[in-house]
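*** Residues and shapes ***
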Amino acid sequence: MPKEIFELKLIFGLKLKEIRNEKGVSYQELREKTGLSLSYLSEIENGKKYPKGDKIMAIANALNVSYDELVSLKVPKKLEPVVHLIQSDFFKAFPLEQFGLNPQKLVEIISYDPEKINAFINTVLQVARNFELKQEGFYHAALRSYQELHNNYFEELEHAVDELHLEFPELKEIPFSENVLTEILLKLGVRISDEQLYEIKSLRNLRSLYDPKERLLHINRGLNSGQINFLLGREIAFQWTKEKKRPLSTPPQGHHDFEQILSNYRTSYFSAALMMPRDEVVRDIQAFGQRETWDSKVFMSFMDKYDVTPEMIMQRLTNILPSIFGYENLFFLRFVGKGSNYFTLTKELHLTRLHNPHGNELNEHYCRRWISLTIVQDLIEQRKTNPELKYLAGIQRSRYHDSPNEYLCLSIAFPNVSNPEELVSVTIGFLIDETLTKRIRFLNDSAIPTRLVNTTCERCPIQDCRERVEEPYVFQGNLESEIIQSDIQKVLDEKGE
C-alpha cells in the first residue's frame, strides 16, 4: 500500500472519531443517518478503509460538517502529535510487525484517549530531543529490547549454522582458518580484497566494505585473525541466509532503517555461532563450571581455542547460558575507558530485568567499584611495565548497596583496536541465586573478592568511599525531598487531629 494512502486512511479515521465524539453522535446514530454498516464505520475510524466520495458526503451531512473539512489533512491541535507521528520517517520505517503490532492497531489505541496519549507522545519526543536521541539510536534501543524479549537466543539461526556445517564439512576444524572461510565465500560468489580500504584515507578505519555490484568484500588488514574471520563469517551469513537489506560497511555508516540494523545483528549472531558451535561451547561451560577455583588463564584460553575476541566470547555466552543452562538473570556490559578516570557504557544487554549498572545519558560517573571499571584501571597500570599485555581477566562478587542482589561478574579488559588510546572492558554478570550456586562450583572460591557497589557516584550514599569521583548530589537532593514530604505529612496529620 502506498504510504500516502496509508496516511490518509489513518488521519481520516482519527478525524472522524474526534468529530463524532465532539458532536455526541454514537455509532448507531451515524449508521442510521448514513445507511453505512457499523462494521464499515468501525473500519473507517480505525484507518482500515477510506470511503468513496458519496459515502464521505453522507458522513459529512450526518455530522453537519463540510465535505472539505472532513477530507482536509488539517486536524485539531490535540491530534497534531499523532499525525506528526504517522507522517514521520520513524513510523514509516519501523517494522511494528516485528513486535506484534500493526499501525492500525497502534492508532486505534491512541484514539481511545488522544489527549493523554498525545501528552505521552510529546513527552517522549521532548525526552528524545533533550538527550539527542536520533532515529537510529532509537532503533538500536529497540534492537536491544528485541534481543531481550528472545533471551538473546535464536534457534532458527542455530539451525542455519548447522545446515552450513553439513554443506561444508571443512568447517568441523576449530578454529577456522581464513582460507577455509574465503573458499566458502568464493563458492557463494563473493571475492575478497584487502587493498582499497588502505588506499582511501577516510576509509582506513572501516573494518569491511561490501560492493554488491562486484560482489566484492573489502577487508581491513589491520585487524587480528579473529576479527577478520568474524567479518568473513558474517558475509557468509548474509549470502547463506539471503539477507537483502543490510549495511554495506562495518561499522555501518550513514542512516539505516530497523530492518538493516536487525539484519546486521542476525548475521553477526550467525557468525559467532559459526565460530563457536553451540554443542562445543556447552561442553566447555559445563567443564568450566565444575572447577573448584576461578582461573583467569583457563577462562581466557577459550579465546585461543576459538580464535575470537573477548567481546565475541562474552556475547556468545549470553546466547548459550540462558537458553541451555537457564541462567536468565544476567547482563552484558561494554565500557570504553579513556585514560583511567573517564568511562562510557557503549553497549548493554539485560535479560529478565534491568540490572545495575545500566546506561544513563546524564553524564554521571559510574561506580568505580565495579570490576568493569577497575579492571581497565588495572590494565593501564600493568601495561606501563608490560606494554605487550593485551588482555586482563578478572572476577568479582558485586553486592548492590541497599539491595539483596549480589552478582558474579566476569570481566576482560583489552585495548580498543579502533583507537589505541582507549581501553575496553566487557563484562557478563549473573545474579547469584540457587540455580547459579548449584552449577558453578567455584562460586564460593575464597579468592574471589566481594565488593559493595552502587550505580553512580551522584546517587550513592556510601560513606567514606575512596573511589568516589563526584559528590552524591542526586542522593542528597532526594533525601531533602523526602524530609520535606515527611514534614508536610506531619503538618497535615496534626491539622487532622
Observations:
- The radius of gyration is 28 Å.
